[in-house]
Amino acid sequence: MTDSSGPPFRADHVGSLLRPKNLLDARARHAAGEIDDAELRGIEDEAIADVVRVQADVGLRTATDGEFRRASWHMDFIYAIDGITKVTDQNIVVHFKNSDGSLDYTPAGLHVDAPLRIDEPIFAADFAYLQSVAGEGQTPKLTIPSPSMVHYRGGAAAIDPAVYPDEDAFWHDLSAAYNQQVQGIAAQGCTYLQFDDTSLAYLNDPQQRAELAAQGRDAEHLHERYIRQINAALAGRPESLTVTTHLCRGNFRSSWVAEGGYDFVAEALFGGLEVDGFFLEYDDDRSGGFEPLRFVPPGKRVVLGLVTTKRPELERKDDLKRRIEEASAFVPLEQLALSGQCGFSSTVEGNSLTRDEQIAKLALIVETAEEVWG
Q: Which helix (H) or strand (E) holds 142?
């Protein structure tokens, strides 16, 4: 682990990792009332300490807790925001696709029924534990959903008009709440924060925009609103805090939702979003070409997600190097880095890989980065 270029580092990863079987068993026993919160947390602690060591062993500088304490990458955080209630009777169906056909996912919804606030940083205790087990040379990273994820699924229909008569007031409070989260977690010593965002990738898909337009939403300009509000959430952050964003087109049990390159959002996104780096999904043809990277300004790092986390087959190192070279025609090589295309387990179920296959992919990322950047 000699890379001193980041974060984001030349070899990096998105965040979520496959849950070990004993942890899945413990969660099932907890749900059945067979073990209490304290016993579950102790099992989680052991699993997190182990996976932090795994990240160090393969040579990664980034350390995450694998999102082991969460059921999903975003909803555990969103439901912890004051003013948001979990709704289980909305019958939202998300249509995921995979090489074998399709897979429907029916998540719980949300309702904004009180003023939005984050008085104490969400996941503060979880991040403190990660900080305590991260080894020398490892930088703990906290991953949370971006503010736009609160809005994308339900839009105005999920907001009580008695609380927020117009969306401007909603956005003001949401960004202010997120700003408190950012400031609070930075005060705790976090130096690496990631906003995960599927919405800004979904909006590149004409079908997704058509569905939003059919709901009466401004699909052609929604990405501009999201960029403004993320920037408001990050306003005044300390210089010690590096912030990245990860964009993908859905990740559930090796399946995806949206398709299409980054062309629709590229100019506004890369030129206007005030983050330090972009984790971008680039593992297959669904993601389009590298041409949109021409809008990336100097000083921003692009972490190319060339290694798929959806399939177990290991990429060829020479193919990865060729793709990095192709991307360098649009953004300088010194601004590039390498990662997996998404997390390995965005939800507790995880993708269709084994633990050993996951480790092999992480090791490949590190080895390739060392050969490309030294």
A: strand 142-145
The CA distance from 240 to 207, in Å, is 40
pLDDT along the chain (374 residues), means of 10: 80 98 97 98 98 98 98 94 88 59 65 97 98 97 96 88 96 98 98 96 91 91 97 98 93 70 97 98 91 98 97 97 98 98 92 96 98 96
Strand partners, 139: 62
Asked if 12 contacts 303 with a C-beta cutoff of 8 angstroms, the reply is: yes
Secondary structure element (H or E) that encloses residue 144, with its range: strand 142-145
Q: Where are the alpha helices (DSSP H) in 190-336?
A: 199-202, 206-214, 222-234, 263-272, 317-327
* Spacing of C-alpha 298 from chain mean position: 23
- The DSSP code for 320 is H
**Omega before 7 cis (within 30°)?**
yes
Token readout for 65 is: 């807790």
**Nearest Cα residue to 295 out of 331, 333, 243:** 331
Phi (first) and psi of residue 7, to 5 degrees? -80, 160
C-beta of residue 195 within 8 angstroms of C-beta of residue 243: yes
For the chain, helix, strand, coil in percent to 5 are: 40, 20, 40
Q: pLDDT per residue over 37-79, tens digit each?
A: 999 999 999 999 999 999 999 999 999 999 999 999 999 999 9
- Residue pair 338/368 in contact (Cβ under 8 Å)? The answer is yes
